[in-house]
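W.,

You were right to be curious about this one. When I first looked at the sequence I had no strong expectations either way, so I just let the prediction run and decided to look at it fresh. Below is the sequence, 73 residues in total, followed by the output.
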Amino acid sequence: MSTANLIKMANQIAQYFASEPDQQQAVLDVRNHLKMYWTPGMRKELLAWQTAHQGADLHPLAQAAVSGAGWEA
């Protein structure tokens, strides 16, 4: 899968959880979704891209979910 598609999907997931009033819970929800439904390869590719590009195109919740503690690609 292309990195562009992964970014698009991660942003859609983050947008879905953006209505959560508790920001920390929203980040955890995005992280948990990615861990439950994405393959390890997808997570590694997104993490590598995020590291190389400082998450420039990622929704802030997706950035926090991928870069925060507890993220194991």
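Here's what jumped out at me. The helical segments are 3-17, 23-37, 40-53, 60-67. And, maybe more interesting for your project: The longest helix spans residues 3-17.

Coffee later to discuss?

I.
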